[in-house]
């Protein structure tokens, strides 16, 4: 009998890739959705990706409510908590996204206490932000974002507080050794359908000329296929319990990303930015555009992920940032998501 696992927010960009790989490995997957009318589209996207969906079932559960979580997690050896809000346009209230992210994580952890391993999708943003950052900044497993730093955005605050709450709950509940987090950088790679992840939505906006010049910011890049695989490695590797696993490859600037897009799909990406916007101009534009405001915390620092311990622990080899951006660009071209 196939081992049963739970994937929360199964319609999401990372979650669909995770579900695909779990099904390919023979797991029975139960995916949570807020509305069951999405299930046929999810099955269709996975089927078109070449996987048998006969071992995929669904449960209705919402991160804002206790209803349905205990039933969803019942009998699951592994619980992958992937669902979390990620808006491109940040709300003005720094705490606006916290209740859904933090309280939702705690609901899932409470329901999953009997699981052999709980793997939670966090983010490198929970590690990268604090006052006094150097121009070039290594990011390591035990680094934490300071949510009181004034430049942190609502998304950064929500991911940091949600992960901290999860570790606190696991420590107090005596199951820290059964919890692992995956902390991705900027997630690129192929989209399965036109339900794009926020990172690929950023690329789509770049192709539409929304950014005539690129803010001078850089991010560690990771392919969604590698993020999915690292979730599985976190579940299957005994020593991954109690660890924060960074998922990232090389660091790329937005100009680097735009250059790859133009090389891969010249017609699609002809409106992508070819020059950088000065930092002072970014700060001025942020007063009027909430999307621009979301990058203020990234000005002036180039982060580099320390993933040597992740590779040693799990054996994973990350695709290059260029490969991930190229795959994302080709998927945009394929689905004509303009």
**Assembly state:** single chain
Structural class: alpha/beta
Please write the CATH class name.
Answer: Alpha Beta
Rounded Rg: 19 Å
**Terminal residue distance:** 43 Å
Percent range for β-strand residues: 15-25%
Number of distinct helices? 12
- In what order do the strands lie side by side in the largest sheet? 3-2-1-4-5-7-10
Morphology call: globular
The count of domains is 1
Write the layout of secondary structure elements.
Layout: E1 4-7, H1 13-24, E2 28-33, H2 39-48, E3 56-60, H3 69-73, E4 78-81, H4 98-111, E5 117-121, E6 136-139, H5 154-173, E7 179-184, E8 186-188, H6 198-207, E9 218-223, H7 224-236, E10 244-247, E11 251-253, H8 254-264, H9 279-286, H10 290-293, E12 302-305, H11 308-314, H12 321-335
Parallel strand pairs: 1-2, 1-4, 2-3, 4-5, 5-7, 6-12, 7-10, 8-9
Antiparallel strand pairs: 9-11
Helix pairs in contact: 1-7, 4-5, 8-12
What does this structure look like?
This protein is of the alpha/beta class. Helix content is 38%, strand content 16%. It has helices at residues 13-24, 39-48, 69-73, 98-111, 154-173, 198-207, 224-236, 254-264, 279-286, 290-293, 308-314, 321-335, and strands at 4-7, 28-33, 56-60, 78-81, 117-121, 136-139, 179-184, 186-188, 218-223, 244-247, 251-253, 302-305. The strands form three sheets. The chain has a seven-stranded parallel sheet, sandwiched between helices. It has a three-stranded mixed sheet with strand order 8-9-11. It has a two-stranded parallel ribbon with strand order 6-12. The chain is globular.
């Amino acid at each position: 009998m196939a081992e049963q696992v739970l994937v929360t927010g199964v319609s999401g960009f990372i979650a669909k890739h995770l579900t695909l790989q779990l099904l390919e490995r023979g797991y029975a997957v139960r995916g949570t959705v807020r509305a069951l009318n999405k299930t046929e589209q999810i099955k269709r996207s996975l089927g078109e990706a070449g996987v048998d969906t006969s071992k995929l079932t669904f449960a209705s559960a919402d991160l804002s409510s206790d209803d349905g979580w205990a039933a969803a997690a019942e009998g699951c050896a592994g619980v992958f908590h992937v669902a979390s809000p990620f808006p491109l346009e940040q709300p003005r209230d720094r705490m606006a996204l916290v209740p859904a992210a933090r309280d939702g994580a705690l609901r899932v952890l409470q329901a999953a206490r009997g699981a052999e391993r709980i793997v939670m999708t966090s983010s490198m943003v929970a590690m990268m932000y604090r006052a006094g950052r150097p121009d070039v900044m290594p990011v390591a497993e035990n680094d934490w974002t300071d949510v009181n730093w004034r430049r942190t955005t609502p998304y950064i605050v929500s991911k940091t507080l949600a992960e901290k709450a999860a570790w606190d709950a696991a420590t107090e509940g005596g199951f820290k050794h059964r919890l692992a987090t995956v902390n991705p950088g900027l997630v690129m790679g192929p989209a399965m359908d036109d339900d794009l992840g926020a990172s690929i939505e950023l690329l789509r906006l770049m192709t539409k000329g929304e950014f005539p010049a690129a803010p001078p910011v850089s991010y560690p890049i990771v392919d969604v296929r590698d993020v999915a695989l690292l979730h599985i490695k976190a579940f299957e590797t005994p020593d991954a319990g109690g660890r924060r696993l960074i998922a990232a490859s090389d660091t790329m600037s937005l100009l680097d990303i735009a250059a790859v897009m133009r090389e891969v799909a010249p017609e699609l990406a002809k409106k992508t930015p070819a020059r950088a916007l000065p930092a002072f101009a970014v700060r001025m534009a942020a007063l009027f555009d909430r999307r621009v405001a979301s990058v203020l915390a990234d000005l002036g620092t180039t982060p580099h992920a320390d993933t040597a311990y992740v590779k040693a622990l799990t054996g994973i080899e990350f695709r290059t940032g260029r490969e991930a951006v190229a795959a994302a660009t080709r998927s945009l071209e394929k689905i004509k998501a303009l």
